[in-house]
Amino acid sequence: xxxxxxxxxxxxxxxxxxxxxxxxxxxxxxxxxxxxxxxxxxxxxxxxxxxxxxxxxxxxxxxxxxxxxxxxxxxxxxxxxxxxxxxxxxxxxxxxxxxxxxxxxxxxxxxxxxxxxxxxxxxxxxxxxxxxxxxxxxxxxxxxxxxxxxxxxxxxxxxxxxxxxxxxxxxxxxxxxxxxxxxx
Length: 184
What we know:
By secondary structure, the protein is mainly alpha-helical. The chain has a domain at 96-184. It is 78% helix and 0% strand. The relative contact order is 0.07.
C-alpha cells in the first residue's frame, strides 16, 4: 500500500493502478486501496473505472465525504450528470455542512445552466468554513458568473422552466385535433 501511495504522489499513475490492484487482489475490501486506485484512474481520465472504485469505497465507508465527492466528480466527467447530482444531494442530505460537496454541486449546476441553484450552493459552501483555496475559488466563480450575467440579455432559468412545464398539463392529441378543426 505504501508503494502504491508513493507512486500516486509521484505521478506514476499507471504503476499506482497496478500496485493498488495487486493489493486489492489479496484483500478486496480495503477502502483506502479502492480510493487510491480511483484517484489514479481520475488522473488517467478513466472516469468509469474511477467511479466504480469510489462507489466501492463509498459502500465500505459510507460516512467518508471524499468518496462521495470523488464519485460525483467521476460520474460528471463520464457525462452521467444526473447520477452525479443525485450523489452530491445524497451526501448533502447526510452531511449538510460539507463545504466541498456544496462547492462541487454548485459548479455542476452552473455548468448545466441552473444558475440560481449553482449560486445557492456556492453561497452555502461559503457559510460552512471552506479552506482558503476553496473560498478563493468560490469567490472567483461567483464573480465570473456575475460578469457573464451582465453580458447577457436573457438567460433562462432551466429549473423554473422545467417545473413550469411539468405543472402545466399538456393537451391530448384528440384535444389538439379538436382545436385545429374548431379554430377556423
